[in-house]
Amino acid sequence: MDFELTSEQQALCRRARDLADRAFAERAARWDASEEYPWENVKDLAAAGFMGMTVPEAFGGGGRPLLDVILVIEEIARACGITGRIVVEGNLGTVGALDAYGSEAQKRRWFPWVLEGEKPAIAISEPAAGSAATDMETRVEETPTGYRIHGHKCWITGAGTSRLYLVYGRFGGRAGAEGIGGVFVERDTPGFRIGRRELMMGLRGIPEGELHFEGCAVPRDNLLVGPGDGFKKLMAAYNGQRLGAATVALGLAQGAYEKALAYATARKQFGRPIGDFQGIRWKLADMAIQIDAARLMIHRAAARAGHRFPDALEAA
Ligand SMILES: Cc1cc2nc3c(=O)[nH]c(=O)nc-3n(C[C@H](O)[C@H](O)[C@H](O)COP(=O)(O)OP(=O)(O)OC[C@H]3O[C@@H](n4cnc5c(N)ncnc54)[C@H](O)[C@@H]3O)c2cc1C
Fold this sequence. Notes:
Number of strands: 10
Shape: globular
Radius of gyration: 21 Å
Largest sheet: 8 strands, mixed
Helix content: 40-55%
Order of helices and strands: HHHHHHEEEEEEEEHEEHH
Bound molecules: flavin-adenine dinucleotide
C-alpha cells in the first residue's frame, strides 16, 4: 500500500494546519474553561470548506474521500480537540448516513445546514443501553402522517447546540437489532426537549447531554432507515464516525508530543536539556511510536474506504 500523500493532500494538510495554528490554537483553552461552543471556529471551518467535505459536489459539498477528511481532522485536533470533534460530525456519522441512505429531499434540506457549519448529532445511547445499543427502549410509533417518538437519550454530543438529530429508536415494539431504525428530528420540534448537560473532565466546549422525546411527532419524510436492516446500515455509517473519533485522539496526541518535545529541548537541569536524559528520551520515543502506529492504522482504514464507509474491524 502506498502511504505517500499526494501533492493535493499535502496542500490540504498545510491549509488546515495554517488555520489551526493561526486561529484555533490560541482560542483552545478558552472553550474548555468557559464551556462555550466555539461558534467563532465554526464560522472559520465553514469558510474554509471543512464542513461538508464529504457531501457530494451536486449538493454543494467537497465530494472528498474519507482520507482527506481524516487529514484535516488531525491537523485541527492537534490545536483544538473540541474543534476537531466538530469536523468529525460535520463530515462523518450523521452526514455519511444522510449521504448513503437519505432521500433527495432530505439532502436538499439538511446538507446546506452542514455546509453553513451545522454539526448534526447522533442519538443512540440511553441510560440502560450503552455498549449494548440494541437494548435501546426509545419507541418510534407510526401515525397516519409520520412518526411519534417517546424516550430518553443520554451522552449526546451537541445536545442543544446541534439543530439536527439522527435519533435511533425501536419501531412497532419489535425486539432486537431488527426493530431499530433512525429518524431525523429538528431541534425546535414540539415534544423534543434538551435535558441535563454532563459535567466533563475535558473537551468541555461541546455539550454532552440528555434528549427527551415526549410524543414528539415528525413527518413521514423524516425517516432515514426503517427497521429490518436499518440498524446494520446505521452502524455501517457509524464506522466513519469511529475513525473520526480516533483521529481526534491522534491529533491531540501529536499536539501533546510536539509540546513535550519542545519543552524537553528547552528546559535545562544539571546544565543540560532534560531531553538529553535517557528516561525522558524513552518516553518521547514511546510516544512517537504509538502516534505513528495509530496514524498508519487510521490511514489504512480510510484509504481503503475511499468514498465509502470504513471496514468495521479496521475502524474498531
Ligand atoms: C464524550 C462522550 C461523547 C459521547 N457522544 C455520544 C453521542 O453523540 N451519541 C451517542 O449516542 N452516544 C454518545 N456517547 C455514549 C457512548 O457511545 C457510550 O458511552 C458507549 O456506548 C459506552 O456505553 P457506556 O458508557 O454506557 O458503558 P457501558 O456499556 O456500561 O460499559 C462499561 C464498561 O464495560 C465494558 N463492557 C461493556 N460491554 C462489554 C462486553 N460485552 N465485553 C467486554 N466489556 C464490556 C465497556 O468496555 C466499559 O469499559 C458518548 C460518550 C462519551 C463519553
